[in-house]
Every structure is written in structure tokens, then in C-alpha cells.
Here is the input.
Amino acid sequence: MAVNHEPTLSKQTIYDGKIFNVELHEVELPDGNASKREVVKHPGAVAVVGMTDDGKIPLVRQFRKATEEFLLEIPAGKREAGEEAISTAVRELKEETGYTAGHLEEIAQLYTSPGFANELISIYIASDLQVGVPQTEADEFLTVEEWTLEEIRAGLNKQSFRDAKTAFAVQTLLARANS
Amino acid sequence: MAVNHEPTLSKQTIYDGKIFNVELHEVELPDGNASKREVVKHPGAVAVVGMTDDGKIPLVRQFRKATEEFLLEIPAGKREAGEEAISTAVRELKEETGYTAGHLEEIAQLYTSPGFANELISIYIASDLQVGVPQTEADEFLTVEEWTLEEIRAGLNKQSFRDAKTAFAVQTLLARANS
Here is the structure.
């Protein structure tokens, strides 16, 4: 499976943005024909699901312009240039919820939209959480909620989680709690 | 939570593509300041996790140009204009794996990358699968694999699933099998 089935014949950068770039690739298909592929290039992201010693999972509720609605998500953020994923995890958890994690374990690296974007998100489970003060960025407006595992189980059944990384992460937490 | 915290003051379409468009919005933040939001507009997608009567889950392995690697995914595809999500589910399952589903149940509607894209993916569990012949599109090159639940459980532990919708869907299937 090491063969690249769609080598790029030529490409152009359509958009050079702040969060992502857009590239248009002309590729060669396995049958020899040419085709176009539109690709969103993203630096990658990190998300953290944690549980406090008294069984609370910190979640953030924020308005997402792309979706035009408020979403309930685990703390997450974009990777900065040169930043290790685990450092982003520590930073975003602290900034968005105030918590500092004594232990972080990577449970998955997932492509969020492989049909058109290269965004890869590293998902961590955090434990040994210490309370602190959130330090959100100037253009971030969010509220922190703390849910129990039981509330999360009910929320999954009611489709309360509309963010893919969050649905996956809380489901993993539940599966571990049950095993 | 009905208040829109980031009303659009002005917007421009940066890119009008085949799979997605890109819009740049100038928005008003809750504190009154202006900010920019880059948004990928996508028509939405559908994905289907199914299990045959003899306990096999059809998966497709395909090269994804955006990620430059082969990914193992549940059958999925973009929604066509005016097409109901469940019709897309029936169509994509048939096209990519050949299976026809006697029953489809929506388990989630998830935003794949709410930080920058409006792609919403409807995920279905399919049952009563009938074997048929795949009918892939001209620029799709994929191979179908059939995994058992045990193989999927092991795969999740080994991080074999690098596609977010797939990781969520197979995890849901496992959770149901265990309950």
C-alpha cells in the first residue's frame, strides 16, 4: 500500500489564509487519467478529554462561525508551528478550562475530513487534573461546563454532541469506564 | 443560546470549488470588536457502518489525496443537491460495497471540523445487508475489506482507524454489541 495512487502533476495555491490554505492539485489516477483534487491544508489540532478526581468532565460551549451554532466540545485548539502535540494539549486545556493535567495519554490521531482536508487531530485523555484559572485568547468566547459520565452517556444517546472529535473522545472515556 | 455571537458584517467568496467553497467573513465579536473568520462551505456527507448477518463489517480502503495516505473508512460520500441523507446512505453503501441495507438507523449528525468547516456528516448503522455488486464512480479507486467486531476492537486499540467518522462509528457498534 506504499504506492501513491494519485501523484500530483501540478498544483496551485488558491488561498493562503490564517487558519488554512487551499491547494488545487491536478493528479494522475491509477487508470492514467487526470483529475483535480481540492485540498484544505491545515496545521493540525489537538483535543483533550479529562476527568477530575470527583468524576467531572470539563467541556466548553462556544459559538462556531463555520456552523453558525453553539457547540459543546472537549477543549481543543490548533497546533502552533513547531509545537509538539502534547504541548498544545497542555496549553489548550489550561487556556480554555484552567485545568492542569498531571498525566496525558494519546488515544488517537484522526483525520477529521480526509475527503478534502489534511487536518489531523491528536486526542488525549487527561488525568490528575488540578484546578486553575482559564486564560482564553482575545477572540475566544466560551463557557466551561462540567458533566458527569452519566450525563455524557445520556447526552450521547440524545445526540447532544454534534462535534465529531468530542463524540469520539467521550465515547472512549465511557468505554474505558465500562471495561 | 439562540443569540448569534458573531454576526457577519461582510463576507466574500474566496474560492468557488467543486467539493467546497471558501468564504471570508468579517464578524462582530461579543465584545464589539471585529474579527475575520475563514469558513469552508461543504454540502455535507453521509457515512454508513453496517454488519452482515454473519458478523462482518464492510470497510473501504482508499487513497485520500488530502492526507496523502491510504485510509480505512466506513462507506461514505458527499450529499448531492436536494438528496435526503438516508438516500445518500443507501446509494453510497451500494456504490462502494455492493450491499443493500434492509434497515438504516441514524446514530449521529456530527460536524467534522467545526473550527473552520460546516461539513455535517450523518452516520447510519445498517442492518439486513444483502450482497450485490459495487458500482464505484470513475475517479474512485477503492478496495472493500470485511472485518469482524473482534478485529475492529483490536484495530481501535492499535489506532488502525485514522478517519474520525470511522473511529466513532465502529466504536458505537462495539458499544452496542457490549450492551
